[in-house]
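[09:14] KT: can someone run the structure on this one? pasting the chain below
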Amino acid sequence: MRVSASGQWRLHLGDAETSRAAGLYPEALALHKRTIELACKLGRPYDEKLAQEASQALAKR
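[09:31] RB: done, structure tokens below
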């Protein structure tokens, strides 16, 4: 099954939050970075900002 870029963004964001909740911070940061890249590629500044804020909050831990 092929997943669209928009679908990939949602999957990565969900996986990042799951990783964060499980205490897997390096993995969560990597997934948040990927969500930022995809949001930029999709031209979705709101989603890009959301992922950036989540990543920054995680990096402070």
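[09:33] KT: thanks! The chain has a mean pLDDT of 89.
[09:34] RB: yep, looked fine to me
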